[in-house]
Amino acid sequence: MHALSRTEATSQRNLMQQTLTTGARRIAEHRALLVSLMLLVDSLHFVFARLLLPYISPDISALYVQAVGTLVFGAYALASGQLNWQVFRRHFWFFLVIGALIGISTNISYTAIAYIDPGTAAMLAKISTIFGLGFGLFWLNERFTQRQWIGAAVAIFGSFVIAFQPGSDLLRLGSALILVATLMYASHTAIVKRFSAQIDFVNFFFFRLFATTAVLLVVAAGRGVLVWPHVGAWPIVVLTALVDIIISRVLFYVALRRLQMSMHTIFLTLGPVLTVLWSIPLFGVAPGPQQLVGGLAVLAGVMLVSWPRR
Questions:
Q1: Which of 161, 180, 222, 272 has the most CB atoms around it within 10 Å of its CB?
Q2: What pLDDT, in 10s, does the model give residues 201-226?
Q3: Structural domain total, the chain
Protein backbone atom coordinates (compact mmCIF):
# COMPACT_ATOMS: atom_id res chain seq x y z
CA MET A 1 0.00 0.00 0.00
CA HIS A 2 2.84 2.36 0.88
CA ALA A 3 4.68 1.46 -2.36
CA LEU A 4 1.48 2.06 -4.33
CA SER A 5 1.13 5.52 -2.79
CA ARG A 6 4.66 6.38 -3.80
CA THR A 7 3.99 5.18 -7.33
CA GLU A 8 0.80 7.20 -7.55
CA ALA A 9 2.54 10.29 -6.18
CA THR A 10 5.36 9.90 -8.71
CA SER A 11 2.85 9.46 -11.53
CA GLN A 12 0.96 12.57 -10.47
CA ARG A 13 4.18 14.59 -10.35
CA ASN A 14 5.21 13.33 -13.78
CA LEU A 15 1.77 14.10 -15.20
CA MET A 16 1.83 17.62 -13.73
CA GLN A 17 5.31 18.25 -15.08
CA GLN A 18 4.45 16.83 -18.50
CA THR A 19 1.25 18.88 -18.74
CA LEU A 20 2.92 22.16 -17.79
CA THR A 21 5.95 21.46 -19.95
CA THR A 22 3.75 20.63 -22.94
CA GLY A 23 1.74 23.81 -22.45
CA ALA A 24 4.88 25.92 -22.16
CA ARG A 25 6.38 24.25 -25.23
CA ARG A 26 3.26 24.94 -27.29
CA ILE A 27 3.42 28.62 -26.40
CA ALA A 28 7.16 28.78 -27.04
CA GLU A 29 6.76 27.13 -30.45
CA HIS A 30 4.26 29.78 -31.55
CA ARG A 31 6.47 32.83 -31.70
CA ALA A 32 3.66 35.34 -32.34
CA LEU A 33 1.63 34.01 -29.40
CA LEU A 34 4.66 33.99 -27.12
CA VAL A 35 5.59 37.59 -27.95
CA SER A 36 1.96 38.76 -27.64
CA LEU A 37 1.46 37.21 -24.21
CA MET A 38 4.84 38.50 -23.03
CA LEU A 39 3.98 42.04 -24.10
CA LEU A 40 0.51 41.91 -22.53
CA VAL A 41 1.69 40.97 -19.05
CA ASP A 42 4.98 42.92 -19.27
CA SER A 43 3.00 46.11 -19.87
CA LEU A 44 1.42 45.76 -16.42
CA HIS A 45 4.64 46.15 -14.40
CA PHE A 46 4.32 49.85 -13.62
CA VAL A 47 0.53 49.60 -13.48
CA PHE A 48 0.80 47.11 -10.61
CA ALA A 49 3.45 49.27 -8.94
CA ARG A 50 1.02 52.21 -9.03
CA LEU A 51 -1.90 50.09 -7.80
CA LEU A 52 0.19 49.01 -4.81
CA LEU A 53 1.12 52.57 -3.88
CA PRO A 54 -1.99 53.42 -1.77
CA TYR A 55 -1.77 50.16 0.15
CA ILE A 56 1.90 49.58 0.90
CA SER A 57 5.07 51.66 0.95
CA PRO A 58 7.26 51.31 -2.17
CA ASP A 59 10.17 50.74 0.22
CA ILE A 60 8.90 47.24 0.96
CA SER A 61 6.23 46.43 -1.66
CA ALA A 62 8.77 44.81 -3.98
CA LEU A 63 9.94 42.55 -1.13
CA TYR A 64 6.50 41.13 -0.39
CA VAL A 65 5.60 40.73 -4.07
CA GLN A 66 8.82 38.81 -4.70
CA ALA A 67 8.37 36.76 -1.52
CA VAL A 68 4.86 35.64 -2.51
CA GLY A 69 6.11 34.78 -5.99
CA THR A 70 8.94 32.74 -4.47
CA LEU A 71 6.55 30.78 -2.24
CA VAL A 72 4.07 30.06 -5.04
CA PHE A 73 6.63 28.96 -7.61
CA GLY A 74 8.63 27.14 -4.95
CA ALA A 75 5.53 25.11 -4.04
CA TYR A 76 5.21 24.06 -7.69
CA ALA A 77 8.92 23.20 -7.98
CA LEU A 78 8.75 21.13 -4.78
CA ALA A 79 5.49 19.37 -5.68
CA SER A 80 6.78 18.43 -9.13
CA GLY A 81 9.99 17.03 -7.65
CA GLN A 82 12.22 19.34 -9.69
CA LEU A 83 13.69 21.49 -6.91
CA ASN A 84 17.45 20.91 -6.59
CA TRP A 85 19.45 22.94 -4.09
CA GLN A 86 22.69 21.72 -5.65
CA VAL A 87 21.93 24.04 -8.57
CA PHE A 88 21.95 27.00 -6.20
CA ARG A 89 25.18 25.82 -4.58
CA ARG A 90 26.96 25.35 -7.93
CA HIS A 91 25.82 28.71 -9.31
CA PHE A 92 25.75 30.71 -6.10
CA TRP A 93 27.56 33.79 -7.42
CA PHE A 94 25.46 33.86 -10.59
CA PHE A 95 22.22 33.90 -8.58
CA LEU A 96 23.63 36.41 -6.10
CA VAL A 97 24.56 38.84 -8.88
CA ILE A 98 21.28 38.62 -10.79
CA GLY A 99 19.31 38.64 -7.52
CA ALA A 100 21.02 41.88 -6.51
CA LEU A 101 20.46 43.46 -9.94
CA ILE A 102 16.79 42.44 -10.08
CA GLY A 103 16.02 43.21 -6.44
CA ILE A 104 17.57 46.66 -6.36
CA SER A 105 16.18 47.47 -9.81
CA THR A 106 12.65 46.47 -8.76
CA ASN A 107 12.92 48.39 -5.50
CA ILE A 108 14.10 51.50 -7.35
CA SER A 109 11.35 51.30 -9.99
CA TYR A 110 8.64 50.82 -7.33
CA THR A 111 9.98 53.88 -5.53
CA ALA A 112 10.10 55.92 -8.75
CA ILE A 113 6.43 55.28 -9.49
CA ALA A 114 5.57 57.56 -6.56
CA TYR A 115 6.96 60.46 -8.62
CA ILE A 116 5.86 59.72 -12.21
CA ASP A 117 2.85 58.06 -13.82
CA PRO A 118 3.01 54.46 -15.13
CA GLY A 119 2.83 55.41 -18.80
CA THR A 120 5.72 57.87 -18.60
CA ALA A 121 7.75 55.43 -16.50
CA ALA A 122 7.18 52.59 -18.97
CA MET A 123 8.11 54.74 -21.95
CA LEU A 124 11.21 56.10 -20.27
CA ALA A 125 12.22 52.56 -19.26
CA LYS A 126 12.32 51.59 -22.94
CA ILE A 127 15.69 53.30 -23.09
CA SER A 128 16.59 49.74 -22.09
CA THR A 129 16.46 49.18 -25.85
CA ILE A 130 19.77 51.01 -26.11
CA PHE A 131 21.31 49.09 -23.21
CA GLY A 132 20.03 45.77 -24.56
CA LEU A 133 21.30 46.45 -28.07
CA GLY A 134 24.69 47.37 -26.69
CA PHE A 135 24.96 44.16 -24.66
CA GLY A 136 23.65 42.05 -27.53
CA LEU A 137 25.93 43.47 -30.19
CA PHE A 138 29.16 44.00 -28.28
CA TRP A 139 29.09 41.33 -25.58
CA LEU A 140 26.99 38.49 -27.01
CA ASN A 141 28.29 38.96 -30.58
CA GLU A 142 24.83 39.07 -32.16
CA ARG A 143 24.34 40.43 -35.67
CA PHE A 144 21.62 42.42 -37.43
CA THR A 145 20.64 42.51 -41.09
CA GLN A 146 20.44 45.91 -42.77
CA ARG A 147 16.65 45.95 -42.40
CA GLN A 148 16.95 45.10 -38.70
CA TRP A 149 19.43 47.94 -38.22
CA ILE A 150 16.89 50.32 -39.78
CA GLY A 151 14.10 48.93 -37.59
CA ALA A 152 16.28 49.23 -34.50
CA ALA A 153 17.11 52.85 -35.34
CA VAL A 154 13.42 53.69 -35.83
CA ALA A 155 12.45 51.99 -32.56
CA ILE A 156 15.20 53.78 -30.64
CA PHE A 157 14.17 57.08 -32.22
CA GLY A 158 10.60 56.44 -31.08
CA SER A 159 11.81 55.74 -27.55
CA PHE A 160 13.66 59.06 -27.49
CA VAL A 161 10.64 60.93 -28.89
CA ILE A 162 8.48 59.51 -26.12
CA ALA A 163 10.96 59.97 -23.29
CA PHE A 164 12.55 63.31 -24.10
CA GLN A 165 9.46 65.46 -24.36
CA PRO A 166 9.24 69.08 -23.19
CA GLY A 167 8.07 69.39 -19.62
CA SER A 168 8.72 65.73 -18.83
CA ASP A 169 10.19 64.47 -15.57
CA LEU A 170 13.41 63.35 -17.29
CA LEU A 171 15.70 65.38 -15.03
CA ARG A 172 13.64 64.80 -11.90
CA LEU A 173 14.16 62.17 -9.28
CA GLY A 174 11.64 59.68 -10.64
CA SER A 175 13.12 59.62 -14.11
CA ALA A 176 16.67 59.34 -12.78
CA LEU A 177 15.58 56.34 -10.70
CA ILE A 178 13.93 54.71 -13.72
CA LEU A 179 17.11 55.11 -15.77
CA VAL A 180 19.24 53.49 -13.06
CA ALA A 181 16.75 50.66 -12.60
CA THR A 182 16.58 50.09 -16.36
CA LEU A 183 20.36 49.82 -16.71
CA MET A 184 20.51 47.30 -13.85
CA TYR A 185 17.74 45.15 -15.29
CA ALA A 186 19.29 45.22 -18.78
CA SER A 187 22.57 44.08 -17.20
CA HIS A 188 20.80 41.16 -15.55
CA THR A 189 19.19 40.20 -18.88
CA ALA A 190 22.57 40.08 -20.63
CA ILE A 191 24.09 37.98 -17.82
CA VAL A 192 21.17 35.53 -17.90
CA LYS A 193 21.36 35.23 -21.69
CA ARG A 194 25.05 34.40 -21.55
CA PHE A 195 25.38 32.18 -18.49
CA SER A 196 22.05 30.43 -17.77
CA ALA A 197 21.68 28.11 -20.77
CA GLN A 198 22.99 25.08 -18.83
CA ILE A 199 20.56 25.56 -15.93
CA ASP A 200 17.12 23.93 -16.20
CA PHE A 201 14.36 26.50 -16.23
CA VAL A 202 12.46 25.52 -13.07
CA ASN A 203 15.53 25.67 -10.83
CA PHE A 204 16.82 28.77 -12.58
CA PHE A 205 13.57 30.64 -12.06
CA PHE A 206 13.03 29.54 -8.46
CA PHE A 207 16.54 30.43 -7.32
CA ARG A 208 16.32 33.69 -9.26
CA LEU A 209 13.21 34.52 -7.19
CA PHE A 210 14.79 33.21 -4.01
CA ALA A 211 17.96 35.29 -4.43
CA THR A 212 15.98 38.41 -5.33
CA THR A 213 13.79 38.05 -2.24
CA ALA A 214 16.84 37.49 -0.03
CA VAL A 215 18.53 40.64 -1.36
CA LEU A 216 15.38 42.72 -0.86
CA LEU A 217 14.99 41.34 2.69
CA VAL A 218 18.56 42.31 3.57
CA VAL A 219 18.09 45.79 2.06
CA ALA A 220 14.79 46.37 3.87
CA ALA A 221 16.21 45.15 7.19
CA GLY A 222 19.30 47.31 6.76
CA ARG A 223 17.17 50.37 6.09
CA GLY A 224 14.86 49.59 9.01
CA VAL A 225 11.69 49.64 6.89
CA LEU A 226 10.40 46.11 7.55
CA VAL A 227 6.67 46.54 8.24
CA TRP A 228 3.97 43.90 7.88
CA PRO A 229 1.37 45.01 5.29
CA HIS A 230 -2.20 45.51 6.48
CA VAL A 231 -4.83 43.02 5.36
CA GLY A 232 -6.17 45.24 2.57
CA ALA A 233 -2.83 45.17 0.77
CA TRP A 234 -2.55 41.39 0.40
CA PRO A 235 -5.01 40.83 -2.50
CA ILE A 236 -3.11 43.24 -4.77
CA VAL A 237 0.24 41.89 -3.52
CA VAL A 238 -0.78 38.31 -4.40
CA LEU A 239 -2.22 39.36 -7.78
CA THR A 240 0.95 41.29 -8.61
CA ALA A 241 3.09 38.31 -7.64
CA LEU A 242 1.11 35.91 -9.81
CA VAL A 243 0.91 38.12 -12.91
CA ASP A 244 3.92 40.44 -12.77
CA ILE A 245 6.43 38.08 -11.12
CA ILE A 246 5.53 34.53 -12.16
CA ILE A 247 3.54 34.67 -15.41
CA SER A 248 5.30 37.74 -16.78
CA ARG A 249 8.83 36.58 -15.96
CA VAL A 250 8.26 33.01 -17.15
CA LEU A 251 7.18 34.35 -20.53
CA PHE A 252 10.06 36.86 -20.46
CA TYR A 253 12.70 34.18 -19.94
CA VAL A 254 11.13 31.69 -22.37
CA ALA A 255 11.18 34.41 -25.04
CA LEU A 256 14.72 35.37 -24.03
CA ARG A 257 15.88 31.81 -24.69
CA ARG A 258 13.97 31.62 -27.98
CA LEU A 259 14.97 35.01 -29.43
CA GLN A 260 18.17 36.91 -29.94
CA MET A 261 18.63 39.33 -27.06
CA SER A 262 18.56 42.36 -29.36
CA MET A 263 15.27 41.32 -30.97
CA HIS A 264 13.87 40.40 -27.55
CA THR A 265 14.64 43.93 -26.36
CA ILE A 266 13.07 45.62 -29.38
CA PHE A 267 9.87 43.55 -29.13
CA LEU A 268 9.50 44.82 -25.57
CA THR A 269 9.47 48.42 -26.81
CA LEU A 270 5.80 47.81 -27.60
CA GLY A 271 5.06 47.50 -23.88
CA PRO A 272 4.64 51.24 -23.14
CA VAL A 273 1.88 51.49 -25.75
CA LEU A 274 -0.13 48.94 -23.79
CA THR A 275 0.82 50.54 -20.46
CA VAL A 276 -0.58 53.87 -21.65
CA LEU A 277 -3.79 52.10 -22.72
CA TRP A 278 -4.05 50.46 -19.27
CA SER A 279 -3.38 53.83 -17.57
CA ILE A 280 -6.17 55.73 -19.34
CA PRO A 281 -9.10 53.95 -17.61
CA LEU A 282 -7.24 53.18 -14.38
CA PHE A 283 -5.50 56.49 -13.66
CA GLY A 284 -7.00 58.97 -16.13
CA VAL A 285 -3.72 59.46 -18.02
CA ALA A 286 -3.92 60.05 -21.78
CA PRO A 287 -1.00 60.22 -24.22
CA GLY A 288 -0.12 63.54 -25.80
CA PRO A 289 0.68 64.14 -29.49
CA GLN A 290 4.40 63.55 -29.01
CA GLN A 291 3.75 60.29 -27.18
CA LEU A 292 1.60 59.11 -30.09
CA VAL A 293 4.30 59.98 -32.64
CA GLY A 294 6.90 58.13 -30.61
CA GLY A 295 4.60 55.14 -30.15
CA LEU A 296 3.98 54.86 -33.90
CA ALA A 297 7.74 55.03 -34.53
CA VAL A 298 8.30 52.21 -32.04
CA LEU A 299 5.61 50.10 -33.73
CA ALA A 300 7.17 50.69 -37.15
CA GLY A 301 10.62 49.74 -35.88
CA VAL A 302 9.34 46.55 -34.27
CA MET A 303 7.59 45.51 -37.49
CA LEU A 304 10.78 46.07 -39.50
CA VAL A 305 12.81 43.97 -37.09
CA SER A 306 10.30 41.13 -36.79
CA TRP A 307 9.27 40.88 -40.46
CA PRO A 308 10.15 37.36 -41.70
CA ARG A 309 13.26 37.03 -43.83
CA ARG A 310 12.89 35.90 -47.42
A1: 272
A2: 899 999 999 999 999 999 999 988 98
A3: 1
* Contact assessment for residue 305 and residue 265, using Cβ atoms and an 8 Å cutoff: no
Contacts of 233 (CB under 8 A, 6+ apart): 52, 55, 56, 64
Q: What is the pTM of this model?
A: 0.77
Are 131 and 156 in contact by the 8 Å Cβ rule? The answer is: no
Q: Which residues contact 30 (CB under 8 A, 6 or more apart)?
A: none
* Residue 242 within a domain: yes
The answer to the question of residue 209 being in a domain is: yes
Closest by CA position to 173, among listed 256, 251, 234, 114: 114
Residue 11 lies in a domain: no
Residue range(s) defining the domain that contains residue 211: 45-306
* Number of neighbours of residue 153 by Cβ within 10 angstroms: 13
Cα–Cα distance, 149 to 35 (Å, whole number): 20
